[in-house]
Structure formats: structure tokens, C-alpha cells
């Protein structure tokens, strides 16, 4: 029977030979956790600059809406059962008490990153879970302002904001945003 060696802390256990492996593993896990907390990890939604396209709206269950030239003449597909009202630079899409809002703002910015940064600073808001995508050759920022899902679409120094606070309308908002077209956009 082998005799165990004594150490300062007691007996030498067989697993003590592998302390360096355990320390390396603990160090890697700690580094991963730090990177996740800092927002550089795989669970950071802002680092994922693509989204899955929502299922297209069925042509038989939608109607086309073209905004006035004051709103830039954009065209969207509206699901059946929704009403559209355009007034004062805003388009409101309603279904009973639920609504999706489209507004238009002129800007001096030629890119959405600068526009969103300025919007956050001036209005003391946080645009979170942000991603950059393209729909119909238009640059788009998608994210949340509190519980309001928002798409910012830039076209020739005009930013269109499509948003809703109603989580049950998020998929409808996605479908409307993916149908957004501007007649002069090539």
C-alpha cells in the first residue's frame, strides 16, 4: 500500500496535480463572464447586425397604402382589419385599441448611427438591443426605447420612425417595416 505524502495543508491528494488545469478553466470562464457583462459576448443582441425576416404578409390579407407626398410618398402593406389615418406628418395604423405609428423627421445626418446617438443625447433616452439591417436597399436601425419597438429608416436626409409600444403588435410592425418602400428609391 502506497504511503501518502504530507503537505503543509495535510495529505497530498491525487487531484492536486491538476490545479493548473482547473485554474485555467476558471480563468477562461471568468473572462467569458466579464466579456458578456461588457457587451462583447455571444449573448449581446447589439452585436448581431442581422435579423430574421418575418413571414411575408399574404397579398390577399393586406392592402397597400401610399402616404401623401408630404410624408414622402412611401408605400406599405397594411394587414386586413387595420385602419390607416394620416395627419400632421404622422401615419397611424389602428386595430381596435392597438396602434402602430409612423412619423417623419428631416435631419442633417447622413447616417443612422449619428442620428440615433444625437437622439439619445438630446432626449435622454436609451436605444437598446440595437441592430443595423437593410430592407429594400434602405439603411435601418432596429431597437427598443423602453418597451417601444422602433425602426428608424433613413432616406435622403429624412428619417422615418415606425414604432409600437404594444408587444402583441411587434410582429405586425416587423411585417409593415419589411414592406416599407419609397417610390424614388432605386
Topology of this protein?
Layout: E1 6-7, E2 10-11, H1 19-38, E3 62-66, E4 74-79, E5 83-87, E6 90-95, E7 98-106, H2 112-123, E8 127-135, E9 138-145, E10 148-155, E11 158-164, H3 170-179, E12 181-182
Antiparallel strand pairs: 1-2, 3-4, 4-12, 5-6, 6-7, 7-11, 8-9, 9-10, 10-11
Key descriptive features of the protein:
186 residues; Protein Transport Mog1p, Chain A; elongated; three-stranded antiparallel β-sheet; 2 domains
Helix fraction by DSSP (H/I, runs of at least 4): 10-25%
The number of domains: 2
Distance between the termini: 84 Å
Spatial extent as radius of gyration: 26 Å
Major β-sheet strand ordering? 5-6-7-11-10-9-8
Named CATH architecture of the largest domain: 3-Layer(aba) Sandwich
Portion in beta strands: 35-45%
What is the approximate shape? elongated
Q: Pairing-aware structural class of the strands and helices?
A: alpha+beta
**Tally of extended strands?**
12
Major β-sheet profile: 7 strands, antiparallel
Average of per-residue pLDDT values: 80
CATH superfamily of the largest domain: Mog1/PsbP, alpha/beta/alpha sandwich
Order of helices and strands: EEHEEEEEHEEEEHE
Total number of helices: 3
Task: Using the coordinates above, name the CATH class of the largest domain.
Answer: Alpha Beta
CATH T-level topology of the largest domain: Protein Transport Mog1p, Chain A
Show unreliable segments: 44-52
Amino acid at each position: 500500500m502506497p504511503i501518502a505524502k504530507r503537505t503543509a495543508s495535510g495529505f497530498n491528494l491525487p487531484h492536486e496535480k491538476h490545479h493548473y488545469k482547473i485554474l485555467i478553466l476558471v480563468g477562461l470562464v471568468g473572462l467569458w463572464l466579464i466579456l458578456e457583462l461588457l457587451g462583447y459576448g455571444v449573448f449581446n443582441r447589439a452585436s448581431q447586425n442581422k435579423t430574421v425576416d418575418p413571414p411575408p404578409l399574404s397579398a390577399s390579407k393586406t392592402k397597400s397604402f401610399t402616404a401623401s407626398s408630404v410624408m414622402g410618398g412611401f408605400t406599405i402593406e397594411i394587414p386586413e382589419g387595420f385602419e390607416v389615418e394620416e395627419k400632421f406628418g404622422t401615419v397611424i395604423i389602428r386595430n381596435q385599441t392597438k396602434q402602430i405609428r409612423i412619423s417623419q423627421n428631416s435631419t442633417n445626418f447622413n447616417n443612422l448611427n449619428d442620428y440615433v446617438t444625437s437622439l439619445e443625447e438630446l432626449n435622454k433616452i436609451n436605444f437598446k438591443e440595437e441592430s443595423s439591417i437593410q430592407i429594400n436597399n434602405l439603411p435601418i436601425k432596429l431597437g427598443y426605447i423602453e418597451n417601444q419597438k422602433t425602426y428608424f429608416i433613413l432616406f435622403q436626409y429624412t428619417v422615418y420612425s415606425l414604432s409600437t409600444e404594444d408587444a402583441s403588435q411587434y410582429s405586425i410592425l416587423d411585417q409593415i417595416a419589411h414592406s416599407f418602400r419609397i417610390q424614388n428609391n432605386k
